[in-house]
Batch of 3 targets.
Target 1
Amino acid sequence: MGSPEFEVIISKTGKVTVEVKGAKGPRCLEYADMIKEIIGREEERRLTTEYYAPDAQVRIDARVRDASG
Amino acid sequence: MSAVIVLTPMVVCAWPAIASAIMGAAASMGFSLRGSALHEEKESRLRKVERDIEQSEVVADQLNPGEKIVVTRDDLTVEFGQDRRGRCTVCVSGLRHSEKELKRIGDEIAGRVVQQFAYHKLVTELKHRNYSVVEEEVLADQSVRLRIRG
């Protein structure tokens, strides 16, 4: 998995909006918590579809045997 | 993207860090420094309004009582200081502006101070954690957009 990327918008009133990209599942919450620890008080949090994508890759090997074995 | 969070900065730090944010905010709005000054109580016909920088607290290297940072632009004067609770205060005065306009200016400059503080805090802390700012721009609405990568 590649390193994460943060898209940050700091408004002229000081509000900070951060999009965490490149991290799936609960790992992205760790990055979000890291940013929150730096900045301050969390007002809102939204999880997107990438959050629900599996973090690990699963490979399935299947073999088909005919009736004769 | 996987998550979006919205945060309100807690401006809790030593006064020099806040002073740095004040200078950046003032410069971005066309104000220039008149210098630190001891507040002088004097009769004045100037209209004045007081605002606070929300979620702010000076926790070290505090200002001497009455000491202020003063910036000016045209007939406007903005004084930054701290109250007894350590909260940052903004006092805006001017001859040719209504009270409503002075409040608007005070709120805008207070917001810009928070913006500057949040920008420097975030960039500095993430650099310490080996992240880099790969893209930066000021948008038309004066927001700052950053792209930061690990």
Target 2
Amino acid sequence: MDIVYRLFYEEESILEKKLWRYLSVTLAVLLMMGVLSACATSPQTTGSSNKNKSKGSNQAADKAGSKTIHIMGPETGNPHIHFKDREKYSSWKEFQKLFKEKGLNPKFEVVANDQYQTTLQTRMASATDMPDFLNVTGLGDDTILNFVDKGTILPVNQIIDEHSDGTAKQFFAEGGKGARSNALNAAENGNVYWISQIQATTYDGKPGSTNQVISVRKDWLDKLNLEVPKTADDFYHMLKAFREKDANGNGQQDEVLAFNPAAWNNGIAQWFGLVNEISCFVIEDGKAVSPWYQPGIKDYFKYLNKLAKEGLMDTSTIGGGDPLDQVIAENKAGAIFDYCMQTWQEPGTGDPDAAYLPIGPLKATDAAEPILAIEPPYLSYNRWAFTKECKDLDVAGTLLDILCSDKYMELTQWGIEGETYEVKDGEKKLLPIALNASWEQAAKEGKEIGDLIWANGSIFPKRRFVPMENEISIVPEYKAEFQRNIIDYHPTTPLGKENYFPVPTQEQVQRRLELNTDLGTQSSQLATQLILGQISMDDWDSHIQSLKDLGLDEILKIDQTLLDRYKKNVKD
Amino acid sequence: MTVKRKFNAGDIVINLVMILVCFITLYPMYYVFILSISDPVVAASMKVYFYPILATDGKMWRAYGYTIFYVVANTLLVLLTSITCAYPLTSKKLMGRKFVVAFLLVPMYFGGGLIPSFLLISKLGLYNTVWALIIPSCFNIWYIILTRTFFVGIPESLRESAQIDGANNFTILSRIYVPLSKPILAVVGIYTIVGVWNSWFTSNVYQPDTSIQPLQMYLRRVLVQQTVDLTKLSQAEAEAMARLKLSNNQLKYSMIIFTTLPVIFTYPFFQKYFVKGVMLGSLKG
């Protein structure tokens, strides 16, 4: 009774009374807002709410007679140039004119790059709020083929055949710029369910491509008066000299080779003639092969084992990620693996004199010729598709015509004449603002090519048919020289074998999924243990048998089937 | 009379172990803190920054504001639903009480899964709104059970006495049960605060609009961008990512410190009730 009395009548309960009142009011307001909000749409979205769901192409034309198409994709990955800021760029304004001319009114839903996959998967799986046209790159092969089976994704080839004004048809037809991409995207039933972004690079008028190789610290070589390594053995001595002579001058013998040996695509493996994935191929040869079966494999492990034993290779970088970045940031990386023309690793070292000189492919063994990992000269990657929400297929056809038009290609790869490019002697050349000015500056001035504003894996597919001379002209001469000299190098292996694989069948996808995880884990584990000397090379046959048991040969067979289908589809 | 205890070898060992445990616990925080105020490129050089990027980062401050909103709204609503649902369940006169309790337990252990939840949120019109992070999570069955268990421990005679004095159920709940349940409400409160503060997954699924996302999504974005393997990207994409990674180098550590501190500072305010509440809840649960 005492407690009850106190709680009811004592003065302190007045304070509690007030507090309770405020709390009640706050809650009431919150709940009211919740109810109101639930009834309304978010004012901050660009078209993702339920209300906008019906705003697909099935809607009637608006007052201006244009038809609406709902498009969804991820924001650009660029730190300064964003699709949401598109209105400030002249390239975008020109692009908009294309839509107006064709009577299209695009409504965009832009999702943060890192979040896009989740948004895509949940929306597609629940068949809720689907746009008409979207970037479906985040869906795995099995998932996307499931959507194809369910009819959620529409066949692009039928849209082109029946609803295009001929522009898209010509683009994807034999001899067109998109022909090879079309062949790659063809499913076994002959239908094409998505379009991809295309990047075809040339050098001196012929197909040419960049590559990923080992690069060494040029400034350290100069400082210690060392020769540029010409063989794998020279490279070993160079690393030793960096260490012994304290190339970074921090008083410690901590200079190392910073790369990820758990991946086959690491530069050193290619010196030993090894392909860059557990199942891949030498482009000139066209035969699916595993590095485990190639002749240089044992010498490769012996070499890395020697580097690891002598501390010339930082074993913490096995697996890549943060430790690898850290070694570079601590200015300990005497050699790295990256694109030969990269210029983004040097600032990360903190040393203003840092300069990475690309080398190789170096001769490492008598058992095999060194190979070069190249970015295929014709890249067809990422996926954009139409969903069943797109009821008016004329709208879909019109959009495809726009994305295959010369004007779109020009805006995407060159931008605006006089602003981002100029024409000299009949040839287009990018101006400094689009070539080597900082992105921050380009964003500030609102001058940029379309590729960075809406393409490059973002809302629309890239169309880039630009000569490599443009890129070569802006990198330091020693990198440019390397790129020029290596342009005709053979043999090569592709960075991304998918550029040579047409769409697999459901069974192939399923089997690859079943096998790849265990096989990949076992392969990485074996490679790591062999490099670190934790297991013996004497048991080689049992190591190989363990991989065979996990389906290595079956994976090779599937890849070979796909490669053969590609060779049959692509006639050049 | 107090007896002075001698400081023996055992005490030294215990203290040393405690110091070691403290060191193991605090060192990662110290490490992250030092990196957060260091030059992004040369962390070792210890060029001190006063969180310059964060101070001018409008997006981060907006995310901070939304996080506070989500925490406040969720905490208030969770407390409200827990109290109001737990109270009737303590009454023996409530018809079908056992059934209701059992009924509540089912969804506590078995969820519908992501896609059904997504469909529900979407059909309710909550998708891509701030309410997607408030309405569904404001009703927590575990907290209701916890609160109910605590309420059951309050003597029935108090309720009867209040009824004799003319109090209705609302008065009994607000004047007797709630004031006597501060420990359990503190526990529910702090669990909710910490849970909402640290959550990012719901926002990742239900809020594609970055302008209404909480701070943890912003932090996640920075961290995800840091983990990209550049050798798997095309040259153009690799360049963009490499520069982003470099600029985010220090930012990620600053963000970790910045997002952790408020929650750490929350605990002392609740500590008075917290230990008692946790103990009571667990013993009688």
Target 3
Amino acid sequence: MELFHSVNVDWLGKKWYFLAFSMIFSVAGIISMSLHWAHTGSPVPLGVDFRGGTQVELKFAHTPDINRIRQATEAAGIKDAEVTTYDVPSQNEVLISLPEQTNESALDVGRQAIVDALHAHYDNSFTVENVHVVGPTVGHQLEKQAGLATLYSLLGMLVYLWFRFQLIYGVAAVVACFHDTLITVGAFALTDREISLTVIAAILTLVGYSMNDTIVVFDRIRENLRLSRREALPDVVNRSINQTLSRTVLTSGLTFLTVLSLFIFGGPVLRGFSFALVIGILIGTYSSIAVAAPMLVAWQDWRAKRGKTAVLPAAKRSRA
Amino acid sequence: MKKNLNKKIALIFAFLLVCLYGIFGVPSGLSGKALLDAMSKRIHLGLDLRGGAHLILQVVVSEAVGEETDNTMARIQQDLKAAHLTFSQVYKPDPKNRPQLVQVEGIDPNQSGAVRSVLDNKYSNEYDIAGNSADNGFTVTMKPLVLTALEKKTDEEAIETIRDRVDSLGVSEPVIQEYGLGDNEILVELPGISDLDRVKEIIQSTARLEIHAVLGGPFPDEQAALASVGGTLPPDQELVHGSGALTGSEADSVYLLQRVAIVAGSDFRSADPGTDQNGMRTVRFTLTNEAGDRFYDYTSKNVGRSMAVVMGGRVREVANIESAIRDSGEIRGSFTPEEVEILSKMLRTGALPASLHYIETSTVGASLGADSIRQGVTAAIVGVLVVMAFMLFYYRGSGINADLALFLNLVILLGFMGFSQATLTLPGIAGVILTIGMGVDSNVLIFERIREEMRAGKPPSAAVDQGFAHAWTTIFDTHVTTIVSAAILFLFGTGPVKGFAVTLTFGLAANLFTAVYVSRVIFEAHLNKLKPGELVSI
């Protein structure tokens, strides 16, 4: 069975549609992040390992009443407790978060206070499934580390691609990855999901995946350019994309299915992680065709207009 | 040709066996349970899958530095007195932020040279000595290298002490190690422990035992104590509260003690619970030889004076020095049996060189861990089945090839993990799932190329050759970039994320082998069986 032989779509011709699509999602993401920043001081909801504080996961014997829980904590004098349901309703689980303590010696007080408050004021037995207490220094350290890791990752890829191809390939690929990261993080802001350290791991993975995808197309472009020096670059790029289309759709499809399986079956702890990958794989595949490839051609055109010689070996004009 | 092929197949099987050994070791039997047992010995589960406690502690190294300079201050004073040189005071101008800096003031300008040579003689190995003409004095600062070495030593001692104490909890496979990028942080992971309070009690207790000279007291409160020295506390003295048990009432009592201890901390060689002739619980201690000499020296010179036993920052007992004591003694006080036990254990395992701050703690309940395993494995199985079914459907005969390669991939991945004793975390399971998706990419690349070549009219064996040849560069590039990503994640990530980076890297490495070598061999075997004119089933 074969899905994609003899495809002949003019991808570059559609670049304005692609640009519009990307702009819409990027802008939506940016607006959402700005609003969130104005509200809470950070562009996306941050997990407890970044923002610091206490997070307690409780499993109740009977369906928990969020309002009663909130009243119980307030009655015990605990201020600023955030109470949310966790996982599917049938699990009867609740997440209680307390803000960051500036005094690190008071680190574990929050958990005990919550447990005592609930024992005293709320009549529904529970077990403590998971407690996470993060002091302010660790939270900030982690933010810095995550930022550095992302930066180094992108830089590493840029250098590798410069080495294996040419600089413009590297730049185009990195721009595509950056576009993917922006839209994925924007999706988190839009859907109000938390970004934790595992989500950062997912984002770095999708950067790698998007790179992969872009490299497959670039490899084909490079091979085709070597074989035919008579064709115009846009034609070569279109043909390369069409030739690799079946591979792209298949791999993305299969990887997407595995990640979807993770999203559906993988449980609440990995949900943020799998959400990032679900979005990331779709956008990563899209960006190789819609962002990276057009950038190559645009760069060539720009250099041609400036009167410089072609960096990528293809004929200047289409021999139509 | 055939012989070559057989050798290759044999090689692959041998490799497979080695990996199976990596996963299972030598299992006691072949039942499901025996295999699972064997596997759990080789592949370690992370805290998020097993449940347990995770703590990050920071060692307050400035305390250790402060103690060292306290000692130096006392010795400088002794040396200057012994050389009959005058000075007004020896003190630390900023003990909190710069505990490594000691100031000597009020030197007689005529004696300045003599003072300099005394300081140089004894302290210039470890300290930088600078003249301070403004107030006729000298500034003695610990050399930066010495300071760093001391901090490092404090960290190491803290780790050793914590390790000893944690051992007493009976935790299997605890993790206690340096953490982070040089901020004196220690990571402690204790699988299976969920009572954080008890852990903290055991680790944190700075049950430092010290014996100080008593200069005044007991006073009813701090004001009275200060009043006895004219309102301000001299820099070489300190105020320490007593424990109510001493006076038999709950009333507070404050003592004026010499800041520098006569003997303290690691000077104690052992401590055991005992009872004295009245049946009161006591703690018997012995000192090291060197400390014993110092103690003898002090006590023989100070008969008739008092000394205080300070524990956990409180005065536990005040004793009169009746005669010289060398290296063993007894601490009397109304201890509870638990207190005596804890004190003895603390003293036996050595004192923490400095206090510890908790900067992050988390506990994962065991049931949450079990849930996570179940969910992760379910997702993985569903993922694998979907991919395998699709490959079979889309690529027909060659689909079997891809599925075999995928299966082998997983076995090799687990084998690597078994051999390297790597830890499997929940994100690690996600990494395995991702490897499945990305691994099959290599096969897709190769197969699509083979299809293309066959469509262009090439015969099967040439098509297969070309397919592998062209796909190789792309496979190599994509794998390297993802491994670069994973390596960076490994460097910057914490426990669970490291687990993800590890499984991803192992999976990709395994994939390079299976997609290129194993798939090729299977194709060759298949091609050998083809009749002339028959096409590869792809």
